Amino acid sequence: MRLLCSTIGLITIAVAVLLAQSAEQTREKEAALKKSLLTLRRAIDKYTFDQHKAPQTLQDLVTTKDVGSIPADPMAGSNSNRRLVIEDPAKSAASKEPGIFDVHSSSDGVSSDGTRYADW
Question: Quick one: which of 29, 76, 112, 113 has the fewest CB in 10 Å?
C-alpha cells in the first residue's frame, strides 16, 4: 500500500511538472506570435507609406527589405500560411490595386487568455 501511494505521488508530481512546462511553452509561443505579428504589421505600414500602395503579398515585404524574412507563425507551425486582411478598395492608397491591410495567425487555436489566435 505504501508503495502504491508513493507511486501515485510521483506520478502526480511528474504530471504537474509536465503541465507547467506545457503552459510555459504556450506562453513562449504566444509571445513569439505577438512579436511576429507586430513585425509584419510595422512592415506593412512602412511598405504602404514608402510605395504609396499596400503590398500584394507578404513576399513584397521581403523584396523591399522591409523584413529580412517572413516570421514564422508559431501557433500554426508555418511562415507561409497567414490570414491576410485585404484593404477596402474605396479606402486603399491605390484604389485599383488594394493590398494587404493587416495580418493574423492562421491557427484556429484558443490562447491562454481565451481569445482566438486568428483574432490577434
Answer: 113
More confident: 60 or 94: 60
Strands 82-86 and 100-105: antiparallel
Q: Is the pLDDT assigned to residue 78 strictly greater than 70? A: yes
pLDDT greater than 50 at residue 18: no
Give the DSSP per-residue string, 38-106: HHHHHHHHHHHHHHSS--SSTHHHHHTTSSSSPPPBTTTTBSS-EEEEEPPGGGSSSTTS--EEEEEE-
Spans of all domains in the chain: 2-119
DSSP 112: T
Q: What is the pLDDT of residue 5?
A: 62
Residue 94 has a pLDDT of 65
Residues 49, 52, 55, 59: what is their CA dihedral angle, to the nearest 10 degrees?
Answer: -70
